[in-house]
Amino acid sequence: MSDLLVVDGISKSFRGLRAVSRASLTVPKGGIVGLIGPNGAGKTTCFNMIAGVYKPDEGSVTLDGRRIDGLRPDLICHAGVGRTFQIVKPFKELTALDNVMVGALHTESDTRRAKREAEAVLDRLGMLEKRNQPAGQLTLPERKRLEVARALATKPRILLLDEVMAGLRPTETDQMVAVFRDLNQREGLTILLIEHVMRAVMALSQQVVVLHHGEVIARGDPQAVVRDPAVLECYLGEEAEI
Amino acid sequence: MIAGLYERLLDGVPRRALLLLGLLLIAMLVAPLLVDPYLLSILILVLYFAYTGQAWNVMMGFCGQLSLGHSLYVGLAAYTSAALYVHFQLPPTIGALAAISISMAFGAGIGFLAFRFGIGGTYFALLTIAFAEFTRVGFDHFAWVNGSGGFFLPVEQYTRNDVLNLRGRPVMFYYLLLALTVAAFVFCRWLLTGRIGYYWQAIREDQEAAQTLGINTFRYKMLAVLISSGMTALSGVFFAFYYNNLFPEQIFNISRSIELILGPIIGGLGSLFGPILGAFVLTLLAEGLYETLHGLGYDIPGIKHVFYGICLAAVIMYLPHGIWPPLRRKLGLETRQ
Question: Which of B67, B199, B221, B255 has the fewest C-beta atoms under 10 angstroms from its C-beta?
Fold first, then answer.
């Protein structure tokens, strides 16, 4: 399988603090890769460099052979990258449907057709009955799903999910996992996810990359990675059990 | 295409809302036949604020860019159309094009400076004030339009209405403003129901999230400023030919900018009917209060502005989204999806 996203040795420092140091990872076309690591490991900074919020100090990000590092976020969206925010950013005064329509209008300029598409995406995430509610009135789990719906509506080739399972109940997590697995299998959507909820990481990821102090310390099969002593020590704690 | 446009404008609008709008329009159309000249002048003021408020609403209400210097566009357009008329006998119907262009050019300059260099929020508002202020100072010394001494249009007793040259009786201005207000209302509805409207609102709510969804925020904010300044220019043309005298100290004054944003804020920021409702409520109540006090023998200078202040405080405290959203709910006029 060819690689859709190739992140090659990217680094980012904030006033001397090296948040990410020469991190590399690849996401194969149609694959699901989990990016894990303790708090402050640099996962979100990595995401922000891929999504265009920050320009990497060094290294490159390539999507399907095309360099995208340093591009503006809107151009990265045009290139085919969709993302969610760890701290959700709903358009609070707009209804759930209008939120998703903003995403759908990216590829569909006709508002009526965009509306139908947005409804289909909301339906898929089990949010259709909430469509007329202002996003500001939704619960946190609902807002997380709305983030996903909005990003999905732009029809990305790769979806970057930043802790969308956090705060969900186990049954809700399983539902979300099922949605992503379905999108991945039926539509071939490629996914890169940051996740703390190991239940979701283990269920979804075909490959896991572990980041610690901004550096990649392990990668590979999820089952193998969580047994890696280095990972157990610095991420899960020496006594941790999965 | 016409059918599609019709459908887009009316999509989700309750029948009752259309009926009420129709009734309001009929009432406004026949009003000049029923009211005395004083009341007509008040209604003209209402329409002036409704139209200008709508124009300002495009920038702040739809796109979230706070301009506190819209008097700049009113003033520039007023001076442009008046000077072209007086110096070159160019009819204001054509002069308006020049006025719109100049206003939009200034809007583009402010927008470019602010959005290119990431100036937002309060600082953007300060920038708009600064532009209005230095333009005022500039016009104070602009001899071609008689500087701070004021610029006057020739006036005579009109027996007929010359629409081309905007020379005529108040009733002509009334119908012109009514047409402008209706056109602006429909135009804004068209904008809001299109991609641009959704993108503006996304930028207003969260710029970073908007950008992630592929929106070129610079371009869409520029469009908001251009459309808003262009629309506001027509208020300036009206102002020049209705009042026939222009003073930089008055027309570019920041209090003018504040005055014209009170309507949309009190009526309901970002809503289509808010600026119209706000203009009616504020102007009619303020004039009513003034007249009542005057009738009782009290002449209190500045009472209108005190009243505006009280209204603004009350709305911000009790109805932060303005009068219109709760009123719309009460009347059962919410749009369906």
Answer: B255
**Cβ-based burial of B81 (10 A; exposed 0-12, middle 13-18, buried ≥19):** buried
Residue B325 is assigned to a structural domain of this protein:
no
Query: How high is the ipTM of this complex?
Result: 0.92
The tally of domains found in chain B comes to 1
- B98-109: pLDDT as tens digits: 999 999 999 999
Give the domain extent around B56: 41-150+158-253
Q: Which residues from B are below 8 Å from A106, CB to CB?
A: 213-214
What are the structural domains, with CATH classification, of chain A? Answer: 1-80+197-242 (3.40.50.300)
Asked if the Cβ–Cβ distance from A101 to B208 is below 8 Å, we say no
Q: Is residue B96 part of a domain?
A: yes
H or E segment and range at residue B198? helix B195-205
Q: Decide if B258 is inside a domain.
A: no
Which residues of chain B approach chain A closer than 8 Å at the C-beta? 8, 11, 193-195, 198-199, 201-202, 204-206, 208-217, 270, 337
Residues sharing a CB contact under 8 Å with residue A233, sequence separation 6 or more, in sequence order: none
Measured between alpha carbons, how far is B80 from B93 in angstroms, rounded to an integer? 12
**pLDDT value at A239 more than 80:** no
Rounded to 5°, angle at Cα B295 from B293 and B296: 65
At A5-47, the pLDDT tens digits run 999 999 999 988 899 999 999 999 999 999 998 888 899 999 9
Answer whether A80 touches B (CB < 8 Å): no
In a domain, B260, yes or no: no
Band of pLDDT at residue B307, cut at 50, 70 and 90: confident
